[in-house]
Structure formats: structure tokens, C-alpha cells
Amino acid sequence: MISYIIRRTLMAIPLLFGITILSFAIVQAAPGGPTSMMMDPTMKPSDREKFEEKYGLNDPVHIQYIKWLGNMVKGDFGDSLIKRGTPVSELIMNRLPNTLILMIASTILAAVIAIPFGIYSAMRPYTKADNAITITSFLGVATPNFWFGLLLIMFLSVKLGWFPTGGVATLNADFSIWDRLHHLILPAIVLATADMAALTRYTRSSMLEVLHQDYIRTAKSKGFKEKRVVLKHGLRNGLIPIITIFGLMLPSFIGGAAITEKVFAWPGIGQLFIDSAFQRDYPVIMALTVVSAVFVVIGNLLADILYAIFDPRIEY
Amino acid sequence: MTALLELRNLKTHFKRDKIDIPAVDGVDLTINKGETVALVGESGSGKSITSLSIMRLIPSPPGKIVDGAILFNGNDLVNLTEDDMCKIRGNDISMIFQEPMTSLNPVLTVGEQIIEVLMYHQKLSRAASINKAVEMLEMVGFSRAKALINEYPHRLSGGMRQRVMIAIAMSCNPKLLIADEPTTALDVTIQAQILDLMKELSVKYDTSILIITHDLGVVSEVADKVVVMYCGQVVEEALVDDLFDEPLHPYTIGLMGSIPSLEGETDRLQSIEGTVPPPEHFPIGCRFAPRCPHAFDRCRAEAPKLVEVAGRRKVRCFLHSDKEATV
Predict the structure, then answer these.
(1) Cβ-contact B94, B180 below 8 angstroms
(2) If you count residue pairs, one on A and one on B, with CB atoms under 8 Å apart, how many are there?
(3) Reported pTM
(4) Does the CB of B154 have a partner CB in chain A at under 8 Å?
(5) What is the pLDDT of residue B325?
(6) Which residues form the ABC transmembrane type-1 domain (chain A) (predicted)?
(7) Which ipTM score applies to this complex?
């Protein structure tokens, strides 16, 4: 098992390498550059050239890439071109914890709500309760994140004043867990909604299939009550495909988080991603690409490991 | 001999597109203590539904026991609550199935699947259950039972899995073992071993067996009594020797004619013309009449009743009931 994990991690290295080449090329191919985006339009062309010279923006693309790669391997992502002098790693490390907290909270929320509802749906298929759950899930999948977020802000924050409208904590207040949680609730709900809905559907169909298997009939013939049949004999089998979906969902939280973070003014890396893309802040974009690629790889690896733990038929 | 299980006029219907389909249509059946009864019939004759009805494991909806009684030790299982039924399943009545390859849970160890039954019904401690599980596995013929406890089912062959199923089924020392085509999915040499094992255990533990099969070879090997089903009804019931000496119902005769024999010269195996009609197209009179070589007008107009013949066997056929009536 450990050798498998090591092998898989090593295999991820060329993959990440490929991802950096592609994203570097795509970012460079985008029209405009940091100078045209951020510089004063009245700036003299000679000054602009001096600036470009200083940051190596005049070099051929492959030279730029090799320089960047060389630094990246050493753990140096360079400085932000826009917020001059701030190391990219510092920018990211300031924001990554916020995104991780939001991701973890919404993942747990999605799983805790979706899996029981999915199981219940599968136990009583085609009943009123199942139909209600199904319709609600479709609504959840179909609702755009930003719209749902704005709606919650409008009613729960602005009209009723139950929740803050955004941010991670009350400004200028002392640190308190309750304050943090209070700020976390709405964005976590919004981020969880779509995945919760999808996860309910996946759990339902997976469990529905499992509950028709012969070994479920065997479990019933042993005299176990329905709850035990479903939870002990059904769930472990039904969760196996869900694990894969979880592994794939994990990195998608970062992408989905960008919009939610924007709506709730949540200072996470999603928001940083959007801002730096607009400003052609190459070092930040590249660093974030690497970070999210790493998340994708970790998500997949985690899914494979959990797979092996849950399904004894899988051998390495 | 006292009756352990008695089915009286059991009717299990399925609803499909608002139509009532009588999958089991008035079955009477008695199993005595220590007796092995074979339930025989083609696919679709209702034999598996009969067995699932006894276990009260008919998927509902669409299936439902609509009439009749299932007397087990004098108690009617039809009226038991689900909770009370759970105490009987796996404990007093247990069941093994046709597909050993898929009947065991792939993510639980073999040991766990036996242990859980013992802890649940016999209230044994985990340690005691493990000992008992090893004992059960040894009894069904595993030599390295201790190691097997921690194996997962996918490492075992079909025959071995069916042995594990038998070990699970017998672990609480049931009074009745229902075996639904237990050897159909196995190859012939393994079939014989499994049947021998079941026979041996039934004698050792005085367990009655209801074996469901369409294989008359299996019947002759294990059964004391044979019940032949056709279209949801019992058409003939007889002791195994009587049935093989002289089958009475034309359907049974047809089944016998379709077994290959080692003796004598046979050109071709006989087959019964036609197929089992689906329940929604059952004929009005005798359900076998359209396929029966001896059918006459009355067979097509009137349904025959199951009548006793020669004092110890029953048959549902005018050829024989008339004879009895006139004698």
C-alpha cells in the first residue's frame, strides 16, 4: 500500500510538469500583459520597456518558463507584479487557510446532509418523500451559486440581520470562534448546495443498485432489521462509487469557491485567482495553477486510497 | 410424524400495471420434522416465490401474500409482525440461494458474516461467536477454517462460497432450511458434494429441508417427498419412490421423459411441447391442458382439484380424480 502511494505520487510529477507548461503557454497567449493592464497610459514607452526588462517580461516565452520553473522547484514563486514586492507565496499562504476552511466546512455539510437523504430515498424509492428529495436536489443543482448567495444575503443578512453579509470575521474585533463560525455559515451553505444536491442523487442511485443485490437478500434472510441491512450491508458497498465522486469534487470546490468567495467577500484563493487573471499577474496565476493542480492530484490519490480501504477486492 | 411447516392455500400475488398476477395460487404443502421435501417445477412455476413467501421476503410492493396460512410449529407466519419475523429468519428458518457468487457480501469477511448471525440471534459474545464460526466452517468441510475467518468472499470458489452460505444458514441450528436451487450454479462434482453435505447436516441436526429445484437428479438424491408445481399450483405430491416408479400427472411424466438415462437406448430426449404460460394468460380449465397430450374437453372447461390418490399421494388431474371417484 505504501509503495503504491509513493508510486502514485511520483507519477504525479510529470503530470504537474505538463500542467505548468500548458498553463504557462495559455496565460502568455492571452492578450495584454501586466504593463498594459496596470501602468499609467501616459507612461513613456521607454519607461515601460525598462519595467519589462526588469521583470524579464521581454524574454522569449521558453526562457521565461525555464526561469520560472527553476525558481518554482526551489519553492520560490517569485513576487507579484501588481502588488509589487509581495512574494506570491505570502499572498497565497495568507488566503489558503480561508479557502480550506470554507472547503472543509462545505464538504462536511454536503456529505452529512446528502448521504442520509440519498440513503432514505433509495430505501423508499418512488414514494412522496423520495420525490420531494429528488425535486429539491434538482433545484439545488440548477440554482446558480452567486444568485443563491445573493438571495441569502438579501433575506438573512440584510432584511433579518441574522448573519453578516461577508468577510471572515468582524473587522477590528478580537478573535472569537463564534464570530468566525457566524461568518462561515452562509458561504458554506451556498458552496455546499450544488454538491449536496448532486451527492444526494449519486448516493440514491448507488444505494438503489446495491439494495437489489443478492447479498442484501441474504442479509434479510439472516433476520436483520431493515436499518441494519441497509447500514451494515448496503452502505459500505453503496459508498464505494461515492468515494470516487468525492475525490473529483474536492478540487472542484476551489473553482466553485471563486464565485462564492467573491459574493461573500471571502478573502480566499478563489478571489485571488479571479483578480490576478484580470490583471495578468503571471506569477500569481501560475502559482495558483500549481496549487490547484496539486489539489486535483491529492483528491484523486485520496479517492484511490479510500477505495482500497473500503473495497477488499481491490489489490495493488 | 408431526408437521413442522404447513402451507394452507397460500396465495402470493404481484401487482403489475394494476393487474393482479397470481404467482402462487393456492399452494398446500406440509413438511414434517426431519423431512426433506423437494419443490419441483419449471422456471415461472412459482416455486421460488413460495419459498420467499415462507421467509416473508417477498418484495412488497409489488408482491403480497393475499390469502392462506403459513403454519410454522403451529404459529401463522403470515400474521407475525416484521419484528417477530426477524427473530425467526436466520434462527428457526434459514435460507441458501442459487447464486453463491453474489450471495455473500463482498466487503465483509467470511468470518464476520457468520459471527454477526450468532451474535444477533444467539446473543453470544464476539469471542464465543468466532469459536463457533470456526467450528461451523470446519463442519462444512474447510480444513483451514481459522485462516478462512479473515478471508473475503472473492477469494473463494463458487462451491466454497456455497459451503460458507450453508455454514451461515446452519449456524443457529435452524429447524427448517430452505435451499433455493442451491446447486444450479455449481459444476456437477461440486453439486454432489453440496447435496451430500446438506443431507449429512439435516440428519445430524434433525433439520427439515425444503429444496427447490428443477433438476430431478437432485430430487432423487436428497428428497423424501416431492411436490411438483406448475403455474403457481401444486399438480402432484408423492413420496420420492412412488413418484419415480409411477408419475401420475402428465406434466410430471413429461418432466421424467426429459431426463437422460444411462440405461437402454434412447434416440432423443422427450420434451414437453410449448412453454409455461405467463400468469396473465392462464387457461380457464386445467392450466396444463394446452400442453397436455391427454387433454379432453373437460380439461379445457373446468379446473381440476388436487385429490388424494391411493391413500398417500395427491394429483391434480381429471385422468386420476375421475378414476378415484368412480371406484
Answers:
(1) no
(2) 73
(3) 0.80
(4) yes
(5) 46
(6) 96-303
(7) 0.85
